[in-house]
Amino acid sequence: MAGTKIVAGLIALALGCGCSKSRPIIVGSKNFTEQLVLGEILAQQLERRLGQKVERRLNLGGTLVAHQALVNGEIDLYPEYTGTALTAVLKLPLATDRTRVLGEVRSAYEKKWRLEWMAPFGFDNSFAMVIRGDDAKRSHLQTLSDAAQHKTGWVMGVGYEFLQRPDGFNGLVKTYGLAIKGEVKTMDLGLLYRALDERQVDMIAASATDGMLSVLDVTVLQDDKHYFPPYEAAAVVRDDSLASRQGMREALGALAGKLNNRTMQKLNYEVDGKHRPLAEVAQEFLKSQSE
User: Residue 100 above 50 pLDDT?
Assistant: First the structure.
């Protein structure tokens, strides 16, 4: 009887030890299309390479929600952006050198939370100041410095957050000396391109990997003074998850440099514009990488 109790106790202890190998890898993401796409790509990549079950906890919420879930061990990894980590999570000053930003973020995350930044995917989802393609051609506009010469002023359309961000509207206007015509029009991000197309605004503050950029006749003005910080995307992973799962580091590392801005735009449009299933879009991308 005593032996039976000891065996039962050992079994209970093993089941309750919380060892990471006893549960599936859990991939999280924030709550917008690109994050869902990246989260699904990460999940399928791990399933393909490790032959293990991966649980998805996508669409968690904003930056701080996803970050806290990672710190708490509720998820093993999620995709994040260097500029967001620098300013929103670490509350560090703006910086524009991508190597320096990645280095600062990597060092701070490791020291504070034992989290590792993998090598970036290869794209930079920074802000993109977008104008109509016909306006760009007619006035020979390629850069934000070119746009600053447009003295009659720009009717600007932005998301609500852009007016308040440290890397947003005020600094942009000051850096380039942009002339703004009338009040800045704030709106939901999903309405920006429609407002531009319907000539309610002349310039919008969009994202460099928006799906609509791959299908519309628009021009992204080059940030020739490097005002916006880098927003390189990469997987952020718990150290203990990497240590306890053989092959996980190599599987994630294989995605380094595989997604440029144009590719990410197209993937986002497949989900947002064509309303295709997330899993199908991610599967096609990964298949194209293995051919």
Answer: yes
Taking the domain 20-124+231-290, which CATH number applies? 3.40.190.10
Query: Given phi > 0 = left and psi -120 to 50 = alpha, else beta, which region is 199?
Result: left
Query: Looking at domain 127-221, which of 3.40.50.300, 3.40.190.120, 3.30.1490.20, 3.90.470.10 is its CATH number?
Result: 3.40.190.120
Strand partners, 27: 56, 77
pLDDT, tens digit, 9 for 90 and up, residues 157-185? 998 888 888 788 999 999 999 999 999 99
- 261-272 vs 278-290: helix axis angle to the nearest 10? 150
Which strands make up the sheet holding 185-186, listed edge to edge?
Answer: 185-186, 156-158, 203-207, 127-132, 218-221
Pairing state between β 218-221 and 77-81: unpaired
